[in-house]
Write a structure and sequence with these properties.
This protein is mainly β. The protein contains 2 helices and 24 strands. The radius of gyration is 21 Å and the shape is globular.
């Protein structure tokens, strides 16, 4: 299935931009690693994500240079954060091994991407990462522009799958695609509902083993050159714990201090003056909200005396409503 956001259409359009290619899922873990696109070890792609440039760069460095503009690091102008880096995907004409000059939509695939030149190879292969939870909602910040008169829409494809050892095949617990309305201004904390799209033939106790997230600048069959999609702060709902890859899913908490941690009777939250008045929420390991309240001072106290021992997710939404800070808080008894 392919769903516009929130209107329905067909899944086939998601991959129409790659009609020349044979697209395969390659096996390549619980929030979205480097979902803030803060870390870039190479110019071709943010760490943990695959793009056209990183995929064809293994063939020819010069070719990867022509594809860099399809996915590149960008800055969120006017967005206050300890990390202002974002991902910019575009539509442009590049040289593709085996096909020459073609117009392609920039993409970013969690888990990486590779390209083996047809007809001897399999074309573009998009990765996925190990993953074992069933998140309810995917959140992101974005803006999207397109040339006047163009009908291009950015596309998000999300898949959760599991390998069946009896049938030796992979089945899909969730496989959906959503389009985002173009908007030249940044849209923050956009919620993509996932819970309504799980395959109901599988019980809630059935867990995936792999996650795939793919962003396309355009889902059009013939994408328009100049179409652009900016992305940042890709993350799941608060009930989903962070991955342990060393890549944070959100911006670093440079302007928040939390102590003591582990805590017993209370935990203190220190803020910069500009963040006084921010809102705090705390969730237990099941995703149940156990605390919500404002942070009216530079140093604030949250009582943890009544909470059972365990790990909790603390989420703080900044005063401007644009930045969300997260931290793990341990309560001991």
């Amino acid at each position: 299935m392919y769903h516009s956001f929130p209107t329905f259409t067909t899944m086939k359009k998601v991959f129409a931009l790659c009609a020349l290619l044979t697209m395969c899922i390659a096996v390549s873990a619980q929030q979205v690693p480097n979902g803030s696109f803060q870390y870039w070890a190479a110019a071709q792609a943010p760490n943990g994500w695959g793009t056209w440039a990183s995929a064809i760069g293994t063939h020819n460095t010069a070719l990867s240079d022509t594809a860099i503009r399809l996915a590149q690091r960008d800055t969120m102008a006017g967005y206050y954060s300890s990390d202002s880096s974002s991902l910019l995907l575009t539509v442009d004409t590049i040289t593709l091994p085996g096909y020459g000059r073609v117009t392609l939509s920039g993409f970013a695939a969690l888990g990486g991407a590779s390209y083996v030149q047809p007809p001897t190879g399999t074309g573009l292969q998009l990765g996925y990462i190990p993953y074992t939870l069933r998140p309810d909602t995917l959140y992101l910040d974005y803006k999207a522009t397109r040339p006047a008169g163009a009908g291009d829409m950015p596309v998000i494809s999300v898949g959760l799958t599991r390998w069946d050892t009896l049938t030796h095949s992979r089945f899909e617990l969730l496989s959906e695609a959503f389009t985002l309305p173009p908007d030249s201004a940044w849209q923050y904390n956009i919620a993509i509902p996932l819970i309504d799209y799980y395959d109901l033939s599988y019980a809630d106790t059935v867990r995936p083993d792999s996650l795939q997230i793919i962003f396309f600048a355009s889902g059009a069959t013939y994408p328009t050159i100049g179409t652009r999609l900016w992305l940042d702060s890709v993350r799941f709902d608060a009930s989903v714990l962070p991955v342990t890859t060393g890549l944070p899913d959100l911006r670093a908490i440079d302007h928040v201090a939390i102590w003591p941690n582990p805590a017993t009777a209370q935990v203190y939250i220190g803020l910069e003056e500009k963040e006084v008045g921010a809102q705090a929420e705390m969730y237990d390991a099941t995703g149940r909200k156990v605390y919500q309240g404002p942070l009216p001072d530079r140093i604030n106290t949250v009582c943890t005396e009544a909470l059972p021992a365990g790990d909790y997710m603390l989420r703080i939404r900044s005063m401007d409503g644009l930045t969300t800070y997260r931290s793990r808080v341990v309560v001991e008894r």
